[in-house]
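REQUEST ID: PR-0412
SUBMITTED BY: lab tech R.K.
PRIORITY: routine
TASK: structure prediction, single protein chain
INPUT:
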Amino acid sequence: MAPISTPATLVPPHAESPIAVGSLGHPTATRPRAKRSDQFFLVLVLIWSGSGLLMAQPSDVLDRGQRIYREHCMECHGETGNGDGPKAPFLSPRPGNLVSAATSAKTDTELLRTIAHGKPRTAMPAWQDRLAVEDQQAALLYIRFLVRFSRSSTPPPPAR
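STATUS: complete
OUTPUT:
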C-alpha cells in the first residue's frame, strides 16, 4: 500500500494563517490558528504511526479505522464501543467497553498489545496475523475517537 502523497501540514502557534488545522486535521475557518493541543495530537499520531500512516492525513486514517472497526469489532463491542454489540449477550465474559474510563486510561501500547495478541479466555481474538500493523493502529485511532468526554449537565458544587 503506497502512502498518501500529501503530508499533513501543521500551523505553528505563532504563524498567521487563513486556514487552521482542526482537531483531526480538518480545515476550519472559525479559528485563525490551530490550538496547541490539536497540533500536539496530530504530531503524536503521525510520529506514533511510524510506517505507512506517517504520510496519511488523519481523517483518512480515521476513516480506515472506522471501516476496520465496523468490519471486525462492532459485532462484539457495538456501534459506539460500549460492549453491547449483537454478539455481546452470547459471550462470557462480555466484550470490553472501549469508551469506559478504565479502557480510556490504558496506554496506546497496552491497547495495541490487546488488539495484536487478543485476550486469553475471552472471545477477543489476536489480530496480528489478520490485520496489518497500520490497520491495527487505525482501528485504535478510531476507538480513541469514540471516547467523547463532555461536560456534565449537573452543576459543579458551590465554591467554599
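NOTES: Strands lie at 20-21, 27-28.
REVIEWED BY: pending
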